[in-house]
Design brief:
This protein has 19 helices and 23 strands. With 591 residues, the protein is α+β, with helices and mostly antiparallel strands. Bound molecules: adenosine-5'-diphosphate and magnesium ion (MG).
Protein backbone atom coordinates (compact mmCIF):
# COMPACT_ATOMS: atom_id res chain seq x y z
CA UNK A 1 0.00 0.00 0.00
CA UNK A 2 1.38 3.38 -0.92
CA UNK A 3 0.95 6.36 1.32
CA UNK A 4 -1.32 8.99 -0.16
CA UNK A 5 -2.78 12.27 1.03
CA UNK A 6 -6.49 12.01 1.46
CA UNK A 7 -8.81 14.09 -0.67
CA UNK A 8 -10.23 17.18 1.04
CA UNK A 9 -13.75 15.79 1.12
CA UNK A 10 -12.58 12.73 3.05
CA UNK A 11 -10.55 14.85 5.46
CA UNK A 12 -13.60 16.95 6.09
CA UNK A 13 -15.74 13.94 6.81
CA UNK A 14 -13.20 12.46 9.19
CA UNK A 15 -12.98 15.74 11.03
CA UNK A 16 -16.73 16.16 10.99
CA UNK A 17 -17.08 12.81 12.69
CA UNK A 18 -15.50 14.28 15.79
CA UNK A 19 -17.70 17.32 15.93
CA UNK A 20 -21.01 15.99 14.66
CA UNK A 21 -21.87 12.72 16.25
CA UNK A 22 -25.63 13.00 16.28
CA UNK A 23 -28.44 15.51 15.76
CA UNK A 24 -27.91 16.96 19.23
CA UNK A 25 -24.32 17.84 18.25
CA UNK A 26 -25.64 19.94 15.38
CA UNK A 27 -28.04 21.68 17.72
CA UNK A 28 -25.22 22.28 20.18
CA UNK A 29 -22.95 23.96 17.65
CA UNK A 30 -25.73 26.08 16.19
CA UNK A 31 -27.03 27.17 19.59
CA UNK A 32 -23.49 28.06 20.68
CA UNK A 33 -23.07 30.15 17.55
CA UNK A 34 -26.34 31.92 18.28
CA UNK A 35 -25.25 32.68 21.85
CA UNK A 36 -21.88 33.89 20.61
CA UNK A 37 -23.75 36.20 18.23
CA UNK A 38 -25.46 37.81 21.23
CA UNK A 39 -28.93 36.50 20.45
CA UNK A 40 -31.68 37.14 22.97
CA UNK A 41 -34.06 34.65 21.37
CA UNK A 42 -33.17 31.25 19.95
CA UNK A 43 -35.61 28.94 18.22
CA UNK A 44 -34.75 25.29 17.70
CA UNK A 45 -36.80 23.04 15.52
CA UNK A 46 -36.35 19.38 14.59
CA UNK A 47 -38.11 16.95 12.30
CA UNK A 48 -37.60 13.21 12.46
CA UNK A 49 -35.56 13.55 15.64
CA UNK A 50 -33.20 15.88 13.81
CA UNK A 51 -32.23 13.37 11.15
CA UNK A 52 -34.66 14.88 8.66
CA UNK A 53 -34.17 18.47 9.72
CA UNK A 54 -32.59 20.69 12.33
CA UNK A 55 -33.24 24.40 12.23
CA UNK A 56 -31.84 26.98 14.59
CA UNK A 57 -32.89 30.60 14.24
CA UNK A 58 -31.53 33.48 16.28
CA UNK A 59 -31.89 37.25 16.45
CA UNK A 60 -28.18 37.86 16.93
CA UNK A 61 -25.62 39.92 15.07
CA UNK A 62 -25.84 38.04 11.76
CA UNK A 63 -22.97 37.29 9.39
CA UNK A 64 -21.65 39.96 7.02
CA UNK A 65 -22.95 39.16 3.52
CA UNK A 66 -19.40 39.10 2.19
CA UNK A 67 -18.36 36.41 4.65
CA UNK A 68 -21.07 33.81 4.40
CA UNK A 69 -19.01 31.47 2.20
CA UNK A 70 -16.01 31.90 4.44
CA UNK A 71 -18.03 30.89 7.48
CA UNK A 72 -18.23 27.39 5.98
CA UNK A 73 -14.51 27.08 5.36
CA UNK A 74 -12.68 24.83 7.81
CA UNK A 75 -10.82 26.72 10.55
CA UNK A 76 -12.51 29.97 9.61
CA UNK A 77 -13.64 31.89 12.65
CA UNK A 78 -14.25 35.43 13.76
CA UNK A 79 -13.52 34.52 17.38
CA UNK A 80 -9.81 33.77 17.51
CA UNK A 81 -6.72 35.34 15.96
CA UNK A 82 -3.61 33.95 17.67
CA UNK A 83 -2.67 30.79 19.48
CA UNK A 84 -2.46 32.68 22.81
CA UNK A 85 -6.09 33.62 22.33
CA UNK A 86 -6.92 30.04 23.25
CA UNK A 87 -6.38 31.06 26.87
CA UNK A 88 -8.55 34.11 26.55
CA UNK A 89 -11.56 32.41 25.03
CA UNK A 90 -14.71 34.18 26.04
CA UNK A 91 -16.92 32.70 23.36
CA UNK A 92 -18.40 29.23 23.14
CA UNK A 93 -16.97 28.62 19.69
CA UNK A 94 -13.37 29.24 18.66
CA UNK A 95 -12.27 26.33 16.45
CA UNK A 96 -14.00 27.50 13.29
CA UNK A 97 -15.00 23.94 12.54
CA UNK A 98 -18.68 23.61 13.26
CA UNK A 99 -20.27 25.01 10.13
CA UNK A 100 -17.71 23.27 7.93
CA UNK A 101 -18.29 19.95 9.67
CA UNK A 102 -22.04 20.20 9.57
CA UNK A 103 -21.99 21.16 5.91
CA UNK A 104 -19.91 18.13 5.02
CA UNK A 105 -22.46 15.70 6.46
CA UNK A 106 -25.79 17.45 5.78
CA UNK A 107 -27.49 19.83 3.37
CA UNK A 108 -27.23 23.29 4.88
CA UNK A 109 -29.20 26.41 4.11
CA UNK A 110 -27.95 29.56 5.81
CA UNK A 111 -29.99 32.71 5.82
CA UNK A 112 -28.60 35.71 7.60
CA UNK A 113 -28.97 39.45 7.85
CA UNK A 114 -27.07 41.96 9.93
CA UNK A 115 -29.42 44.45 11.57
CA UNK A 116 -28.17 47.40 9.49
CA UNK A 117 -28.37 45.63 6.15
CA UNK A 118 -31.42 46.16 3.97
CA UNK A 119 -31.68 42.59 2.73
CA UNK A 120 -30.40 39.28 3.87
CA UNK A 121 -28.48 36.62 2.01
CA UNK A 122 -29.19 32.95 1.58
CA UNK A 123 -26.54 30.35 0.90
CA UNK A 124 -27.03 26.66 0.20
CA UNK A 125 -24.10 24.39 0.96
CA UNK A 126 -23.94 20.73 -0.01
CA UNK A 127 -21.13 18.24 0.24
CA UNK A 128 -19.19 20.96 2.01
CA UNK A 129 -19.25 23.28 -1.03
CA UNK A 130 -21.41 26.37 -1.58
CA UNK A 131 -24.04 25.62 -4.24
CA UNK A 132 -26.10 28.75 -4.64
CA UNK A 133 -26.30 32.18 -3.17
CA UNK A 134 -29.04 34.76 -3.43
CA UNK A 135 -30.50 37.79 -1.74
CA UNK A 136 -33.31 36.92 0.57
CA UNK A 137 -35.74 38.70 2.82
CA UNK A 138 -34.89 37.81 6.37
CA UNK A 139 -35.30 39.19 9.87
CA UNK A 140 -32.11 40.36 11.56
CA UNK A 141 -30.15 37.39 12.78
CA UNK A 142 -29.24 34.00 11.44
CA UNK A 143 -31.16 30.90 10.55
CA UNK A 144 -29.37 27.67 9.78
CA UNK A 145 -31.28 24.69 8.42
CA UNK A 146 -29.61 21.30 8.26
CA UNK A 147 -31.43 18.63 6.27
CA UNK A 148 -30.75 14.94 5.78
CA UNK A 149 -28.03 14.69 8.33
CA UNK A 150 -25.40 12.06 7.46
CA UNK A 151 -26.72 11.57 3.94
CA UNK A 152 -23.08 11.54 2.94
CA UNK A 153 -22.24 9.01 5.62
CA UNK A 154 -25.03 6.43 5.71
CA UNK A 155 -22.94 4.28 8.08
CA UNK A 156 -23.27 6.97 10.72
CA UNK A 157 -27.03 6.81 10.60
CA UNK A 158 -26.85 3.23 11.80
CA UNK A 159 -25.14 4.33 14.98
CA UNK A 160 -27.89 6.70 15.95
CA UNK A 161 -30.24 5.64 18.69
CA UNK A 162 -34.01 5.54 18.55
CA UNK A 163 -35.83 8.71 17.58
CA UNK A 164 -36.99 9.04 21.14
CA UNK A 165 -33.43 8.99 22.47
CA UNK A 166 -32.11 11.40 19.85
CA UNK A 167 -34.97 13.80 20.52
CA UNK A 168 -34.34 13.58 24.23
CA UNK A 169 -30.68 14.44 23.66
CA UNK A 170 -31.71 17.56 21.80
CA UNK A 171 -34.18 18.50 24.52
CA UNK A 172 -31.53 17.99 27.19
CA UNK A 173 -29.14 20.18 25.31
CA UNK A 174 -31.57 23.03 24.76
CA UNK A 175 -32.84 22.98 28.34
CA UNK A 176 -29.28 23.00 29.69
CA UNK A 177 -28.43 26.07 27.69
CA UNK A 178 -31.68 27.71 28.75
CA UNK A 179 -30.58 27.20 32.35
CA UNK A 180 -27.16 28.68 31.77
CA UNK A 181 -28.64 31.64 29.91
CA UNK A 182 -31.92 32.54 31.61
CA UNK A 183 -31.97 35.94 29.90
CA UNK A 184 -32.16 34.30 26.51
CA UNK A 185 -35.52 33.15 25.33
CA UNK A 186 -35.38 29.57 24.07
CA UNK A 187 -38.01 27.65 22.20
CA UNK A 188 -37.81 24.03 21.12
CA UNK A 189 -40.19 22.37 18.68
CA UNK A 190 -40.10 18.68 17.76
CA UNK A 191 -42.16 17.76 14.68
CA UNK A 192 -44.33 20.82 15.01
CA UNK A 193 -44.96 20.39 18.71
CA UNK A 194 -43.48 22.67 21.30
CA UNK A 195 -41.34 20.66 23.71
CA UNK A 196 -39.85 23.46 25.76
CA UNK A 197 -39.86 27.19 26.11
CA UNK A 198 -38.19 29.67 28.43
CA UNK A 199 -39.27 33.26 28.80
CA UNK A 200 -35.84 34.88 28.76
CA UNK A 201 -36.78 37.10 31.70
CA UNK A 202 -33.58 36.21 33.55
CA UNK A 203 -35.25 34.27 36.34
CA UNK A 204 -33.25 31.07 36.61
CA UNK A 205 -35.72 29.54 39.07
CA UNK A 206 -38.39 29.87 36.45
CA UNK A 207 -36.24 28.03 33.91
CA UNK A 208 -35.46 25.44 36.54
CA UNK A 209 -39.18 24.86 36.98
CA UNK A 210 -39.61 24.47 33.23
CA UNK A 211 -36.76 21.97 33.07
CA UNK A 212 -37.28 19.91 36.21
CA UNK A 213 -40.91 20.48 36.98
CA UNK A 214 -42.13 22.95 39.58
CA UNK A 215 -42.09 20.42 42.35
CA UNK A 216 -38.42 19.60 42.11
CA UNK A 217 -37.44 23.16 41.25
CA UNK A 218 -39.22 24.53 44.28
CA UNK A 219 -37.11 22.38 46.55
CA UNK A 220 -33.76 23.08 44.92
CA UNK A 221 -31.27 24.79 47.19
CA UNK A 222 -29.45 27.79 45.80
CA UNK A 223 -25.67 28.17 45.94
CA UNK A 224 -24.17 31.59 45.48
CA UNK A 225 -25.54 34.13 43.03
CA UNK A 226 -26.50 32.74 39.64
CA UNK A 227 -25.34 35.56 37.43
CA UNK A 228 -25.71 35.44 33.70
CA UNK A 229 -22.49 33.90 32.36
CA UNK A 230 -20.10 36.56 31.25
CA UNK A 231 -19.33 35.75 27.71
CA UNK A 232 -17.23 38.89 27.87
CA UNK A 233 -14.18 39.26 30.14
CA UNK A 234 -14.17 36.51 32.68
CA UNK A 235 -14.05 36.48 36.43
CA UNK A 236 -10.67 36.76 38.06
CA UNK A 237 -11.55 34.57 41.02
CA UNK A 238 -13.00 31.12 41.16
CA UNK A 239 -16.73 31.22 41.76
CA UNK A 240 -19.21 28.44 42.27
CA UNK A 241 -22.95 28.91 42.00
CA UNK A 242 -25.93 26.78 41.19
CA UNK A 243 -28.69 24.64 42.60
CA UNK A 244 -28.68 21.29 44.34
CA UNK A 245 -31.47 19.10 45.57
CA UNK A 246 -32.07 18.54 49.28
CA UNK A 247 -30.86 15.12 50.48
CA UNK A 248 -34.40 13.79 50.56
CA UNK A 249 -34.86 14.43 46.87
CA UNK A 250 -32.82 11.87 45.00
CA UNK A 251 -32.75 9.85 41.82
CA UNK A 252 -31.27 6.57 40.70
CA UNK A 253 -28.59 7.92 38.33
CA UNK A 254 -26.22 10.83 38.12
CA UNK A 255 -27.52 12.15 34.84
CA UNK A 256 -29.06 15.20 36.46
CA UNK A 257 -25.73 16.61 37.54
CA UNK A 258 -25.18 19.43 35.09
CA UNK A 259 -21.97 21.42 34.99
CA UNK A 260 -21.21 24.71 33.29
CA UNK A 261 -17.74 26.17 33.14
CA UNK A 262 -17.67 29.83 32.12
CA UNK A 263 -21.13 29.41 30.61
CA UNK A 264 -20.18 26.31 28.66
CA UNK A 265 -21.98 23.02 29.30
CA UNK A 266 -19.30 20.40 29.93
CA UNK A 267 -18.91 16.89 31.21
CA UNK A 268 -16.49 16.79 34.10
CA UNK A 269 -16.20 13.71 36.24
CA UNK A 270 -14.22 15.47 38.93
CA UNK A 271 -16.65 18.31 39.43
CA UNK A 272 -19.46 15.77 39.52
CA UNK A 273 -17.50 13.79 42.11
CA UNK A 274 -17.09 16.95 44.18
CA UNK A 275 -20.86 17.41 44.18
CA UNK A 276 -21.39 13.83 45.29
CA UNK A 277 -18.78 14.12 47.97
CA UNK A 278 -20.62 17.09 49.42
CA UNK A 279 -23.59 14.80 49.99
CA UNK A 280 -21.53 12.20 51.78
CA UNK A 281 -23.50 10.59 54.61
CA UNK A 282 -26.59 12.44 53.45
CA UNK A 283 -27.60 10.14 50.61
CA UNK A 284 -28.40 6.48 50.57
CA UNK A 285 -26.09 4.25 48.57
CA UNK A 286 -27.05 4.24 44.92
CA UNK A 287 -28.99 7.50 45.11
CA UNK A 288 -27.91 10.71 43.39
CA UNK A 289 -28.94 14.33 43.63
CA UNK A 290 -30.11 16.83 41.07
CA UNK A 291 -27.49 19.52 40.64
CA UNK A 292 -26.82 22.42 38.34
CA UNK A 293 -23.37 23.77 39.04
CA UNK A 294 -21.68 26.75 37.51
CA UNK A 295 -17.96 27.24 37.85
CA UNK A 296 -16.69 30.64 36.72
CA UNK A 297 -13.01 31.36 36.67
CA UNK A 298 -10.37 33.30 34.79
CA UNK A 299 -10.04 32.13 31.20
CA UNK A 300 -6.34 31.41 31.65
CA UNK A 301 -7.20 28.95 34.41
CA UNK A 302 -9.05 26.66 32.08
CA UNK A 303 -8.12 25.02 28.79
CA UNK A 304 -11.22 24.75 26.66
CA UNK A 305 -9.40 23.25 23.70
CA UNK A 306 -9.14 19.62 24.74
CA UNK A 307 -12.10 18.16 22.92
CA UNK A 308 -13.30 18.71 19.33
CA UNK A 309 -16.89 19.03 20.48
CA UNK A 310 -15.69 21.23 23.38
CA UNK A 311 -17.55 18.99 25.78
CA UNK A 312 -14.66 18.80 28.21
CA UNK A 313 -12.24 21.28 29.70
CA UNK A 314 -9.04 21.03 31.66
CA UNK A 315 -8.46 23.13 34.75
CA UNK A 316 -5.00 24.41 35.58
CA UNK A 317 -5.75 23.74 39.26
CA UNK A 318 -8.28 20.94 39.34
CA UNK A 319 -7.91 20.42 43.08
CA UNK A 320 -8.88 23.99 43.82
CA UNK A 321 -11.97 23.61 41.66
CA UNK A 322 -12.85 20.33 43.33
CA UNK A 323 -12.55 21.85 46.79
CA UNK A 324 -14.51 24.97 45.90
CA UNK A 325 -17.39 22.94 44.46
CA UNK A 326 -17.42 20.44 47.30
CA UNK A 327 -17.38 23.16 49.95
CA UNK A 328 -20.00 25.36 48.34
CA UNK A 329 -22.42 22.50 47.92
CA UNK A 330 -21.76 21.16 51.40
CA UNK A 331 -22.20 24.59 52.95
CA UNK A 332 -25.50 25.12 51.14
CA UNK A 333 -26.78 21.74 52.26
CA UNK A 334 -25.85 22.31 55.87
CA UNK A 335 -27.21 25.82 55.86
CA UNK A 336 -30.50 24.55 54.54
CA UNK A 337 -30.69 21.93 57.23
CA UNK A 338 -30.14 24.68 59.75
CA UNK A 339 -32.77 26.90 58.17
CA UNK A 340 -35.16 24.02 58.19
CA UNK A 341 -34.48 23.47 61.86
CA UNK A 342 -35.26 27.15 62.38
CA UNK A 343 -38.43 26.91 60.39
CA UNK A 344 -39.55 23.90 62.31
CA UNK A 345 -40.83 24.58 65.76
CA UNK A 346 -39.06 21.80 67.58
CA UNK A 347 -35.74 23.49 67.01
CA UNK A 348 -33.58 24.99 69.67
CA UNK A 349 -32.12 28.42 69.81
CA UNK A 350 -34.79 30.46 68.09
CA UNK A 351 -34.52 34.18 68.43
CA UNK A 352 -37.06 35.67 70.76
CA UNK A 353 -40.32 36.82 69.31
CA UNK A 354 -39.93 40.60 69.24
CA UNK A 355 -41.34 42.29 72.32
CA UNK A 356 -43.10 44.94 70.27
CA UNK A 357 -45.99 43.62 68.30
CA UNK A 358 -45.45 43.26 64.58
CA UNK A 359 -47.65 45.76 62.82
CA UNK A 360 -49.72 43.14 61.08
CA UNK A 361 -51.02 41.88 64.39
CA UNK A 362 -52.81 45.15 64.92
CA UNK A 363 -55.36 45.96 62.32
CA UNK A 364 -56.57 42.80 60.68
CA UNK A 365 -59.04 40.23 61.71
CA UNK A 366 -62.66 39.68 62.46
CA UNK A 367 -65.08 41.76 60.68
CA UNK A 368 -67.84 40.50 62.86
CA UNK A 369 -69.68 37.63 61.35
CA UNK A 370 -72.87 38.95 59.91
CA UNK A 371 -75.32 36.32 60.99
CA UNK A 372 -74.44 32.77 60.22
CA UNK A 373 -71.16 30.84 59.86
CA UNK A 374 -68.65 32.97 58.17
CA UNK A 375 -65.02 32.51 57.40
CA UNK A 376 -62.51 35.26 57.54
CA UNK A 377 -58.91 35.22 56.67
CA UNK A 378 -55.94 36.42 58.57
CA UNK A 379 -53.33 37.55 56.12
CA UNK A 380 -50.20 38.65 57.89
CA UNK A 381 -47.78 40.22 55.47
CA UNK A 382 -46.01 37.11 54.35
CA UNK A 383 -42.57 38.67 54.42
CA UNK A 384 -42.86 39.86 57.99
CA UNK A 385 -43.74 36.45 59.29
CA UNK A 386 -40.66 34.69 60.62
CA UNK A 387 -42.23 31.45 59.52
CA UNK A 388 -42.49 32.59 55.95
CA UNK A 389 -38.87 33.56 55.90
CA UNK A 390 -37.64 30.26 57.23
CA UNK A 391 -40.01 27.99 55.43
CA UNK A 392 -39.21 28.84 51.86
CA UNK A 393 -37.33 25.63 51.23
CA UNK A 394 -39.27 22.76 52.68
CA UNK A 395 -36.98 19.83 53.22
CA UNK A 396 -38.58 16.48 53.89
CA UNK A 397 -35.37 15.06 55.31
CA UNK A 398 -36.96 12.44 57.50
CA UNK A 399 -39.67 11.45 55.06
CA UNK A 400 -41.67 8.35 55.81
CA UNK A 401 -42.14 5.53 53.36
CA UNK A 402 -45.61 4.51 52.34
CA UNK A 403 -47.18 2.62 55.23
CA UNK A 404 -49.83 -0.09 55.12
CA UNK A 405 -52.03 0.09 58.17
CA UNK A 406 -52.60 -3.21 59.93
CA UNK A 407 -54.64 -2.10 62.90
CA UNK A 408 -54.88 -0.49 66.30
CA UNK A 409 -53.35 -1.79 69.53
CA UNK A 410 -54.54 -0.79 73.02
CA UNK A 411 -56.63 1.97 71.41
CA UNK A 412 -53.45 4.00 71.43
CA UNK A 413 -51.05 2.73 68.79
CA UNK A 414 -51.40 2.06 65.11
CA UNK A 415 -49.52 -0.88 63.68
CA UNK A 416 -48.27 -0.50 60.14
CA UNK A 417 -46.04 -2.22 57.67
CA UNK A 418 -43.44 -0.31 55.65
CA UNK A 419 -40.86 -1.43 53.07
CA UNK A 420 -38.41 -1.95 55.90
CA UNK A 421 -40.30 -3.60 58.69
CA UNK A 422 -42.85 -2.69 61.27
CA UNK A 423 -43.97 0.72 62.51
CA UNK A 424 -45.79 1.38 65.77
CA UNK A 425 -47.36 4.81 65.65
CA UNK A 426 -48.61 6.74 68.67
CA UNK A 427 -51.99 7.94 67.41
CA UNK A 428 -52.09 10.99 69.65
CA UNK A 429 -48.57 12.16 68.93
CA UNK A 430 -49.04 11.51 65.23
CA UNK A 431 -52.25 13.48 65.05
CA UNK A 432 -50.65 16.33 66.98
CA UNK A 433 -47.93 16.45 64.36
CA UNK A 434 -50.43 16.39 61.51
CA UNK A 435 -52.59 19.18 62.94
CA UNK A 436 -49.57 21.20 63.85
CA UNK A 437 -48.00 21.11 60.40
CA UNK A 438 -51.26 21.86 58.70
CA UNK A 439 -51.72 24.91 60.90
CA UNK A 440 -48.16 26.07 60.62
CA UNK A 441 -48.35 25.77 56.84
CA UNK A 442 -51.45 27.96 56.77
CA UNK A 443 -49.80 30.37 59.14
CA UNK A 444 -46.60 30.68 57.17
CA UNK A 445 -48.59 31.44 54.05
CA UNK A 446 -50.77 33.93 55.85
CA UNK A 447 -53.77 31.77 55.13
CA UNK A 448 -55.05 30.77 58.55
CA UNK A 449 -58.78 30.49 58.24
CA UNK A 450 -61.19 30.80 61.10
CA UNK A 451 -64.82 30.08 61.66
CA UNK A 452 -66.91 32.59 63.52
CA UNK A 453 -69.06 31.03 66.19
CA UNK A 454 -72.77 31.29 65.64
CA UNK A 455 -73.09 32.55 69.17
CA UNK A 456 -70.01 33.95 70.94
CA UNK A 457 -69.32 31.62 73.86
CA UNK A 458 -68.35 32.93 77.32
CA UNK A 459 -65.58 31.02 79.05
CA UNK A 460 -64.54 31.60 82.63
CA UNK A 461 -60.86 31.27 83.43
CA UNK A 462 -58.80 31.38 86.61
CA UNK A 463 -57.28 34.82 87.36
CA UNK A 464 -53.80 33.59 86.44
CA UNK A 465 -55.02 32.08 83.22
CA UNK A 466 -56.94 35.27 82.49
CA UNK A 467 -53.79 37.34 82.90
CA UNK A 468 -51.82 35.04 80.68
CA UNK A 469 -54.55 35.27 78.09
CA UNK A 470 -54.79 39.07 78.08
CA UNK A 471 -51.18 39.34 77.00
CA UNK A 472 -51.80 37.12 74.03
CA UNK A 473 -55.09 38.40 72.65
CA UNK A 474 -53.67 39.99 69.48
CA UNK A 475 -51.58 36.95 68.67
CA UNK A 476 -54.53 34.66 69.24
CA UNK A 477 -56.64 36.75 66.95
CA UNK A 478 -54.02 36.42 64.24
CA UNK A 479 -54.15 32.69 64.78
CA UNK A 480 -57.87 32.62 64.20
CA UNK A 481 -58.89 32.51 67.85
CA UNK A 482 -60.85 35.70 68.39
CA UNK A 483 -61.32 36.28 72.11
CA UNK A 484 -62.55 39.34 73.95
CA UNK A 485 -62.59 40.29 77.64
CA UNK A 486 -66.12 40.14 79.00
CA UNK A 487 -65.58 41.41 82.53
CA UNK A 488 -64.12 39.61 85.51
CA UNK A 489 -62.28 36.54 84.39
CA UNK A 490 -64.78 35.73 81.72
CA UNK A 491 -63.86 35.86 78.06
CA UNK A 492 -65.99 35.69 74.96
CA UNK A 493 -64.80 33.33 72.24
CA UNK A 494 -65.96 34.69 68.88
CA UNK A 495 -64.16 32.43 66.42
CA UNK A 496 -62.02 29.32 66.27
CA UNK A 497 -59.39 28.34 63.73
CA UNK A 498 -61.02 26.14 61.11
CA UNK A 499 -58.70 23.30 62.05
CA UNK A 500 -60.14 23.36 65.55
CA UNK A 501 -63.71 24.22 64.71
CA UNK A 502 -64.86 20.88 66.02
CA UNK A 503 -63.57 21.67 69.54
CA UNK A 504 -65.66 23.00 72.32
CA UNK A 505 -64.63 26.71 72.60
CA UNK A 506 -63.83 26.47 76.29
CA UNK A 507 -61.54 23.52 75.73
CA UNK A 508 -59.79 25.32 72.90
CA UNK A 509 -59.23 28.42 74.98
CA UNK A 510 -57.99 26.53 78.01
CA UNK A 511 -55.61 24.61 75.82
CA UNK A 512 -54.06 27.91 74.89
CA UNK A 513 -53.60 29.41 78.31
CA UNK A 514 -53.04 26.42 80.53
CA UNK A 515 -49.38 25.67 80.44
CA UNK A 516 -48.95 21.97 80.28
CA UNK A 517 -45.50 22.43 81.75
CA UNK A 518 -43.80 20.13 79.31
CA UNK A 519 -43.86 21.93 76.05
CA UNK A 520 -41.76 25.02 76.60
CA UNK A 521 -38.25 23.86 76.03
CA UNK A 522 -38.39 22.04 72.71
CA UNK A 523 -40.45 24.78 71.14
CA UNK A 524 -37.98 27.41 72.16
CA UNK A 525 -39.28 30.91 72.21
CA UNK A 526 -41.50 31.20 69.20
CA UNK A 527 -44.77 32.31 70.68
CA UNK A 528 -47.14 31.32 67.94
CA UNK A 529 -45.51 27.96 67.35
CA UNK A 530 -45.84 27.23 71.04
CA UNK A 531 -49.47 28.27 71.07
CA UNK A 532 -50.32 26.27 68.02
CA UNK A 533 -48.61 23.22 69.43
CA UNK A 534 -50.55 23.53 72.64
CA UNK A 535 -53.87 23.77 70.95
CA UNK A 536 -53.02 20.90 68.63
CA UNK A 537 -52.20 18.82 71.64
CA UNK A 538 -55.67 19.44 72.93
CA UNK A 539 -57.31 18.93 69.58
CA UNK A 540 -55.57 15.71 68.61
CA UNK A 541 -57.18 12.31 69.06
CA UNK A 542 -56.37 10.81 72.44
CA UNK A 543 -55.11 7.48 73.56
CA UNK A 544 -58.17 5.42 74.35
CA UNK A 545 -60.09 6.66 71.33
CA UNK A 546 -61.19 3.91 68.97
CA UNK A 547 -60.35 4.72 65.36
CA UNK A 548 -62.12 3.11 62.42
CA UNK A 549 -59.82 1.43 59.88
CA UNK A 550 -60.40 4.26 57.42
CA UNK A 551 -59.47 6.81 60.09
CA UNK A 552 -56.34 4.86 60.97
CA UNK A 553 -55.27 4.76 57.34
CA UNK A 554 -56.09 8.44 56.85
CA UNK A 555 -53.98 9.40 59.84
CA UNK A 556 -51.02 7.46 58.47
CA UNK A 557 -51.43 9.09 55.04
CA UNK A 558 -51.42 12.52 56.64
CA UNK A 559 -48.41 11.66 58.74
CA UNK A 560 -46.52 10.49 55.67
CA UNK A 561 -47.10 13.91 54.16
CA UNK A 562 -45.54 15.69 57.13
CA UNK A 563 -42.15 17.29 57.02
CA UNK A 564 -41.06 15.92 60.37
CA UNK A 565 -43.26 12.89 60.76
CA UNK A 566 -41.07 11.20 63.31
CA UNK A 567 -41.60 13.55 66.22
CA UNK A 568 -44.56 15.35 67.73
CA UNK A 569 -44.37 19.14 68.00
CA UNK A 570 -42.99 18.74 71.50
CA UNK A 571 -40.15 16.59 70.30
CA UNK A 572 -41.34 13.20 71.48
CA UNK A 573 -41.30 10.34 68.99
CA UNK A 574 -44.47 9.61 67.06
CA UNK A 575 -43.34 6.15 66.16
CA UNK A 576 -41.16 3.19 66.91
CA UNK A 577 -39.63 1.48 63.92
CA UNK A 578 -38.69 -2.19 64.06
CA UNK A 579 -36.62 -2.78 60.96
CA UNK A 580 -36.55 -6.13 59.21
CA UNK A 581 -32.97 -6.39 60.31
CA UNK A 582 -33.98 -5.94 63.96
CA UNK A 583 -36.78 -8.45 63.60
CA UNK A 584 -34.44 -10.97 62.05
CA UNK A 585 -31.97 -10.51 64.85
CA UNK A 586 -34.65 -10.81 67.49
CA UNK A 587 -35.81 -14.05 65.97
CA UNK A 588 -32.29 -15.39 65.79
CA UNK A 589 -32.33 -15.55 62.02
CA UNK A 590 -29.22 -13.39 61.82
CA UNK A 591 -26.27 -12.83 64.09
P1 LIG B 1 -16.69 29.06 15.50
O1 LIG B 1 -17.99 29.19 16.20
O2 LIG B 1 -15.76 28.14 16.20
O3 LIG B 1 -16.07 30.38 15.20
P2 LIG B 1 -18.28 28.03 13.35
O4 LIG B 1 -17.94 27.14 12.21
O5 LIG B 1 -19.30 27.54 14.29
O6 LIG B 1 -16.94 28.35 14.12
O7 LIG B 1 -18.73 29.42 12.77
C1 LIG B 1 -17.88 30.13 11.91
C2 LIG B 1 -18.13 31.61 11.96
O8 LIG B 1 -19.41 31.92 11.43
C3 LIG B 1 -18.19 32.16 13.39
O9 LIG B 1 -16.90 32.49 13.84
C4 LIG B 1 -19.07 33.38 13.24
O10 LIG B 1 -18.34 34.49 12.81
C5 LIG B 1 -20.00 32.98 12.11
N1 LIG B 1 -21.30 32.52 12.61
C6 LIG B 1 -21.71 31.24 12.69
N2 LIG B 1 -22.97 31.16 13.17
C7 LIG B 1 -23.37 32.43 13.42
C8 LIG B 1 -24.57 33.01 13.93
N3 LIG B 1 -25.63 32.27 14.31
N4 LIG B 1 -24.62 34.36 14.04
C9 LIG B 1 -23.58 35.12 13.69
N5 LIG B 1 -22.42 34.62 13.20
C10 LIG B 1 -22.31 33.30 13.06
MG1 LIG C 1 -19.31 27.70 16.44
Amino acid sequence: MTIRSLPDAVISQIAAGEVVERPASVVKELVENALDAGASAIDVETEGAGKRLVRVADNGAGIPAAEVELAFARHATSKLRHADDLFRVTTLGFRGEALASIASVGRVTLRTRQPDDKAGVQLVVEGGAPQSRMAAGAPPGTQVTVEDLFYTLPARLKFLKSDLTEKRQVTTLVTRYALAYPSVQFRLVHDGREAFRSSGNGDVREVLAGVMGTDVARQMIGIGAWAEPRVGPSASTLQVSGFVSPPALTRADRREITIFVNGRWVQDARVAAAVLQAYRTLLMVGRYPWAVIRVDLATDQVDVNVHPAKAEVRFSEPDAVFRAVQRSVRAALLETERMQALALPNAQGLPDWPAHRPSWLGGNGGQDAAGDWATWYVRPDATSSPMAAGATTPLPTSALPLLRCIGQVATAYLVAEGPDGLYLVDQHAAHERVLYEAWMADWSQGAVTAQALLAPTPVELSPQAGEALEAQLPLLKALGLDVEAFGGHTYLVRSLPTLLAHLEPGAALRAVVESSGEDEAPLAAQAEARLIARVCKRAAVKAGQVLAPAEQQALLRQLEACRSPRTCPHGRPTMVHLSLHTLERQFGRKG
